[in-house]
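re: the backbone from monday

yeah here it is again, tokenized this time
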């Protein structure tokens, strides 16, 4: 019996059925507990994420990939696990495009029942076809190097997820902004003497921990036993549906009042800025004077919007801190003070996912409903089904981020072994696993520090990396899938793929014909897609808006968006400094650039970098593909060494450099 189970587990159909069973197991959880308020993540949502996320990422692609891409995935009559996983994920994004639009045009609600049912039917149907065509097809066992390296990747990514904690588990609707915290706020003269009575009904609450109010009044009593009067700053963070209102009162005086709004005016800007989608927060800050040896009672009055109850609201409170301490203490517990434009970026991805799972075919809409395509729709067609099938809470985006980080690291490791000629040994794989994981965590750290876990750039970095790997290793059909995804994830995607193809054609004349053939197929696919989009734009009257968005995203957004920008000649210097700290310096571990993959990955990064280095601001997400490509180059260089001893030496050097850079960038806050 023990021999039968591992043998069954190596069949793609059996693995798919196990994943499908896990996905179907989320159905009772959905029925027992709906989405609820995003103020807190429910245990049922954690259960759905653990059980369902692998299926959301891989089904039905896991059984579709061997049918469509046998030449890419099958070697010696067995399937590569890693390359099949990459193919399955790429196909799944395209499958979701079909799913959502088929349901939309059929008039069926795009919600978890229909999406899970479609996934189940397709997995079973395609699985039966695969079994009929290739009944003996099995996964090839992982090499010792991939096993040990994969373990390092899993340990590193999961450990980082636990370390980031509330930074990736608190919903984005808790993000807040108030101009009051931009001004200096002094601590009380003797904060240690202050005492607080925090009671929510009969139950106490703790400072900084959110709670559901027991009534429409929350009372905070401040005791000052000191022999001098004190001014005590108090911050309430109120979370609720759009329209929730809070007022902080001290006797007959209103210290602060505000309402959770979707669109708000911003100082110095005529247009309204979007902060939240269906839920949001307001920060209510006031200073309470407390005489010596006396007490004062602060009251937070709550008003829920129509259709909501007080139990839908949540409150967190901090007191007796300076403005810098308020920012630090809220951040530690996952409540981010965030610039309104960054809040807009996060909220846009939530709104676009909701809209694509509703009446709209394309994401990229403005708050007024007009289709502007400021972001190509690729990411939304993965993010939207994941939110519907698992949870609308931001932790779904965080879980996708962790999965993508693991896949980026695994891609570099699998690519390195693919060009090594022989399977990697356990020691080499472990060292390379440490190196590529540290580089992937640079990526994750920057996205988490920005609150950007639901951005398309995470998947975009994976798409560009896989496009290079698949092109170099000759997996043309899978390359076409990921190159196309890179194109519809970010506007520069097609250009970067073309740079990779050009680099390979120049470096390997013997592969030029194959590269040109793959590039021409890719070009035809992009041309067809652009032709369809142009026709849709003309028919819907959106052409002017879309052309404006393309111009805006290319020029004003990147070259006229920072009045304090460095002179043009200084920007590449600053860009290289940041890139070096966040992983670019690992390029020295890729020397002497053994093998084609190492050279092409580095060439692609170096050709792409000038497009970014002259922009007037350097957002963290600009560096993500460059980090992945440098990691790939270093891993491929080590794996291509002639002897195991040389492989170990180079892999160890890469691991040390990558870990040191991760530590340095973390300490410096880059």
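seq for it, each position gets an aa:
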């Amino acid at each position: 019996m023990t021999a039968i189970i591992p043998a069954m587990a190596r069949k793609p159909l059996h693995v798919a059925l196990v994943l499908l069973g896990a996905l179907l197991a989320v159905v009772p959880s959905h029925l027992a507990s709906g989405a609820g308020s995003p103020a807190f993540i429910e245990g049922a949502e954690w259960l759905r994420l653990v059980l369902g996320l692998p299926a959301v990422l891989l089904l039905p692609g896991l059984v579709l990939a061997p049918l469509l891409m046998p030449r890419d995935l099958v070697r010696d009559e067995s399937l590569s696990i890693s390359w099949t996983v990459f193919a399955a994920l790429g196909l799944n994004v395209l499958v979701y495009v079909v799913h959502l639009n088929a349901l939309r045009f059929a008039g069926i609600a795009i919600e978890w029942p229909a999406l899970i049912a479609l996934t189940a039917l397709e997995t079973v149907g395609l699985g039966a076809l695969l079994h009929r065509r290739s009944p003996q097809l099995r996964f090839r066992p992982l090499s010792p190097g991939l096993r040990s390296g994969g373990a390092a990747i899993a340990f590193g990514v999961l450990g980082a997820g636990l370390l980031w904690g509330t930074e990736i588990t608190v919903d984005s609707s808790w993000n807040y902004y108030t101009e009051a915290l931009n001004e200096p706020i002094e601590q009380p003269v003797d904060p240690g003497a202050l005492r607080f009575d925090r009671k929510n009904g009969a139950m106490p609450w703790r400072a900084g921990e959110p709670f559901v109010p027991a009534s429409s009044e929350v009372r905070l009593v401040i005791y000052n036993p000191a022999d001098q009067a004190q001014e005590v700053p108090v911050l309430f963070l109120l979370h609720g549906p759009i329209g929730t209102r809070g007022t902080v009162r001290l006797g007959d005086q209103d210290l602060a009042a505000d309402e959770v709004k979707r669109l708000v005016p911003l100082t110095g800007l005529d247009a309204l800025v979007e902060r939240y989608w269906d839920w949001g927060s307001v920060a209510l800050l006031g200073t309470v004077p407390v005489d010596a040896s006396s007490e004062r009672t602060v009251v937070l009055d709550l008003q829920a919007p129509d259709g909501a109850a007080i139990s839908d609201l949540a409150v967190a409170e901090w007191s007796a801190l300076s403005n810098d301490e308020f920012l630090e203490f809220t951040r530690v517990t996952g409540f981010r003070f965030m610039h309104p434009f960054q809040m807009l970026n996060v909220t846009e991805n939530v709104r676009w996912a909701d809209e694509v799972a509703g009446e709209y075919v394309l994401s990229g809409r403005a708050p007024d409903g007009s289709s502007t395509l400021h972001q190509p729709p690729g990411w939304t067609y993965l993010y939207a089904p994941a939110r519907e099938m698992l949870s609308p809470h931001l932790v779904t985006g965080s879980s996708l981020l962790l999965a993508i980080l693991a896949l980026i690291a695994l891609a570099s490791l699998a690519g390195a072994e693919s060009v090594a000629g022989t399977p990697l040994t356990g020691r080499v794989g472990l060292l390379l696993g440490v190196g590529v994981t540290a580089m992937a965590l640079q990526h994750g750290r920057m996205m988490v520090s920005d609150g950007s876990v639901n951005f398309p750039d995470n998947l975009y970095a994976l798409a560009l990396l896989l496009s290079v790997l698949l092109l170099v290793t000759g997996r043309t059909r899978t390359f076409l899938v990921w190159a196309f995804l890179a194109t519809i994830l970010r506007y520069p995607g097609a250009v970067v793929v073309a740079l990779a193809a050009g680099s390979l054609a120049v470096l390997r004349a013997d592969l030029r014909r194959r590269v040109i053939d793959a590039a021409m197929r890719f070009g035809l696919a992009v041309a067809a897609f652009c032709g369809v989009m142009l026709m849709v734009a003309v028919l819907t009257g959106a052409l002017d808006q879309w052309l404006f968005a393309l111009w805006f995203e290319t020029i004003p957004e990147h070259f006229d968006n920072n009045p304090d920008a460095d002179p043009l000649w200084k920007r590449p210097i600053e860009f290289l400094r940041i890139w070096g700290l966040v992983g670019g310096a690992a390029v020295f571990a890729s020397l002497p650039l053994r093998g084609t993959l190492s050279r092409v990955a580095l060439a692609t990064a170096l050709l792409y970098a000038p497009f970014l280095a002259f922009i007037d601001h350097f957002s963290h997400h600009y560096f993500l593909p460059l980090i992945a490509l440098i990691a790939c180059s270093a891993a491929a260089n080590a794996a291509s060494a002639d002897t195991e001893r040389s492989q170990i030496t180079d892999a160890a050097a890469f691991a040390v450099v990558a870990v040191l850079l991760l530590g340095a960038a973390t300490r410096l806050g880059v």
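The first strand starts at residue 74 and ends at 75. The radius of gyration is 27 Å.
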